[in-house]
């Protein structure tokens, strides 16, 4: 089952939003308007979109994804989404 996790800092709730990692589907990331970026000091890359989480959640719903969990961790909001098999 395909899962995706998106997150944003509470203080920047209008973006940017992290929507994937180096192994994420490039076509989906392009659809979301996300760019692969590397933060100084990190040894990994992540996809970021300038859109706020609400816009990305709407776009993902149109692709068949459903929110299955949401959490606040410190200053970060995180949503986990799943795409049921019937949408593949």
From TrEMBL:
Gene3D superfamilies: GTP cyclohydrolase I feedback regulatory protein GFRP. The keyword Nucleus applies. It comes from the Eukaryota. PANTHER family: GTP CYCLOHYDROLASE 1 FEEDBACK REGULATORY PROTEIN. Belongs to the GFRP family. Keywords: Cytoplasm, Membrane, Nucleus. It comes from Caerostris darwini. GO terms for cellular component: cytosol; nuclear membrane. This is GTP cyclohydrolase 1 feedback regulatory protein. It is found in: Cytoplasm, Cytosol; Nucleus membrane. Its main location: cytoplasm. One of its GO terms (biological process) is negative regulation of biosynthetic process. GO terms for molecular function: GTP cyclohydrolase binding. InterPro entries: GFRP_sf (IPR036717), GTP_CycHdrlase_I_reg (IPR009112).
């Amino acid at each position: 089952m395909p899962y995706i996790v998106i997150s944003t800092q509470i203080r920047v709730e209008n973006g940017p939003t992290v929507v994937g990692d180096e192994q994420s589907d490039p076509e989906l990331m392009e659809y979301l308007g996300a760019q692969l970026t590397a933060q100084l000091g990190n040894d990994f890359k992540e996809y970021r979109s300038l859109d706020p989480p609400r816009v990305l959640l709407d776009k993902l719903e149109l692709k068949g994804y459903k929110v299955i969990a949401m959490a606040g961790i410190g200053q970060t909001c995180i949503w986990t989404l799943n795409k049921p098999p019937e949408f593949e």
